[in-house]
Amino acid sequence: MGLQSEVSSIEKAQPPATQASPAHTRVASDAPFYTGMILIGGFYIFMIVAMLVADLKYTSIPHIFDALKSPEIAYSIKLSLVSCTFTTLLSVWVAVPLGYLLSRHKFPFSSLVDALLDIPIVLPPLVVGLSLLILFQTPAFRKLEEFIPITFAVPSVILAQFMVAAAFAVRTMRVTFDQIAVRQEQVAMTLGCTRSQAFFHVVLPQARKGIITAATLAWARALGEFGPILIFSGATRGRTEVLSTTVYLEFSVGNIDAAVAVSLLMIATSVAVLIAMRSFGLTGFWKAASA
Amino acid sequence: MIQVKDLTIRNGAFSIEKVNFTIETGAYAVLMGSTGSGKTSILEVLCGIKKMDSGSVSIMNRDVSKLKPAERNIGLVPQDGALFSTMTVREQLSFPLTIRSWKSAAINKRIDELAPLLRITHLLGRLPQGLSGGEAQRVALGRALSFYPEVLCLDEPLSATDEEMRVEMYELLRTVQKSTGVTTLHVTHSQAEAKALGDRCFTIRNGKLGE
Q1: Interface test with B, best of A190, A202, A203, A209 (most B CBs within 10 A)
Q2: SS (H, E, C) A182-248
Q3: How much of chain A is helix, strand and coil, in % rounded to 5?
Q4: What is the mean pLDDT of chain A?
Q5: What distances in angstroms separate CA B204 from CA B19, B22, B52, B55, one per listed residue?
Q6: Confidence class of residue A9 from pLDDT cuts 50, 70 and 90?
Q7: Which residue from A95, A241, A257, B132 puts its CA 20 to 30 A from A177's CA?
Q8: Cα separation of B106 and B123, whole Å?
């Protein structure tokens, strides 16, 4: 086909004269689209802000300080800080190896292990507590309790928090290791590293931000844990009482001021944790949490 | 010398069947092939980071088929450099030597030899983020050469460099190879690279190797 006939076939492919070319087409404004998006999304933001403002207006700063002076609440703050910290250390300790194995290797039943890790995330928290309670009624675990009292004691608080928080930490670490190229580890091995040297010298330093994210997520999750603690640890004042149970206990005896004061303390702590996390530039937090 | 005998790799749809080749000591060989032809797989098998289905690989008459990557004494420069993001350029170069428990004076001496040769002395204090494609590849080359490997494997090392830098890199790769005498296998899909660099050129097509 000659050039002349090619040109004429292109001319034939032009849109009809009645149809405006895209360069001259007027399209509708984007305003309705964004207005709809903002209205729907804004409702949720409004509800969060409204809840916080309502909490703040319900009480006053002197009321909050009075409530926090109570020895029971002081104990629950102390136990929350200690138990959440232990839970975080245990969660990261488990999450790093498990996240690495799931990210790097396809082993027999790896899909099953992956699904098992979702159980603490999707189960109602009360069921986790009930399952732990039943587990510790079995002969082997009752024997263990002869040496270390767990059920309805402080270790049960840490274990109840850990069972849920660790699942989130594992998910976070898995995403972290997925984002570190396998090629780097392979190159490290050609450079003279064993698998473990490649892990500790090359992979783990690059996973630092992911580890901080996993730790933060585990800590925040542990702080908010209530259901499993109520069932597995009880809500005994001055013994297994953490901040979430304090809110429940104060509310149940009609001391709304104290319940609101502790709630505000938990909100302030959560906000501080989120700000700290964002200041580390930890991206992919929610993606990891929901993966 | 690199000797590959009856190398077979099967991976889903693609396979390489009974590939044989020998590269003499000190030679610069280029392995060409289109995308997905399996040339990188051959390189990975050589380095021990990919398993082969059958066959054998010998380096300097030593059968390394069952050895771990660390035991093969092969330096690898991957396509993207694969520099370690938490290490400075100096640390990248010293890393293989630190792993081998070299003394710091010997490590510094080796870096002082390599950095001017690769024209990366001014980059030694920098992290890999922000290095250009050519700079990153020179650092990766230095890291792969630092521990005196018997064989150097280059996996499309110039794919991330522009035309001007590529010509400069041809000259650098030639100079480095001549001064170190390391037996080199360079994988590429570029005929220009093969012509500019190779003492010998192999082509892999449909799972078969030709010269």
Answers
A1: A190
A2: HHHHHHHHHCCCCHHHHHHHHHHHHCHHHHHHHHHHHHHHHHHCCHHHHHHCCCCCCCCCCHHHHHH
A3: 80, 0, 20
A4: 87
A5: 9, 14, 17, 17
A6: low
A7: B132
A8: 20
Percent of chain A at pLDDT above 90?
59
DSSP state, residue B83: -
Q: Hey, what are A167's tokens?
A: 């699942």
Between residues 200 and 239 of chain A, which touch chain B (CB distance below 8 Å)?
Answer: 201-202, 205-206, 208
In A, which residues are within 8 Å of B102 by CB distance?
none
**What is the amino acid identity at position A62?**
P
Partner residue facing B99 (CB), from A186, A187, A197: A197
Q: Which tokens sit at A11?
A: 């001319």
pLDDT score for A270: 80
Closest alpha carbon to B125 in B153, B155, B87: B87
Q: What is the ipTM of this complex?
A: 0.93
By residue count, chain A amounts to 291
Interface residue B100 vs chain A (CB under 8 A): yes
Q: Do A206 and B85 lie within an 8 Å CB cutoff?
A: yes
pLDDT tens profile B99-154: 999 999 999 999 999 999 999 999 999 999 989 888 999 999 999 999 999 999 99
**Exposed, middle or buried, B86 (CB in 10 Å: 0-12/13-18/19+)?**
middle
Inter-residue contact A191 to B147 (CB < 8 Å):
yes
Q: Do B147 and A189 touch (CB under 8 A)?
A: no
**Torsion angle of C-alpha atoms A256, A260, A266, A267, degrees rounded to 10:** 150
* pLDDT beneath 50: ranges in chain B: none
Looking at residue A269, what is its pLDDT?
A: 83
Q: What residues contact residue A276 under an 8 Å CB cut-off, 6+ apart? A: A216
Q: How far apart are CA B116 and CA B108, in angstroms?
A: 13
Residue with tokens 């092969």: B74
Distance CA A140, CA A154 (A): 20
Residue A166 CA to residue A176 CA, distance in Å, equals 15
Strand ranges, E, within B65-112: 74-77
Convert the pLDDT of each residue in A264-278 to its tens digit. 988 888 888 778 766
Whether B100 sits inside 8 A of A192 (CB atoms) is: yes
Across the range A226-255, mean pLDDT stands at: 92
Q: How far apart are CA A12 and CA B181, in angstroms?
A: 64
Q: How far is CA B187 from the centre of its chain?
A: 8
Give the model's confidence band at A98: pLDDT under 50 very low, under 70 low, under 90 confident, else very high: very high
CA trace torsion A198, A202, A207, A212 (10° rounding): 100
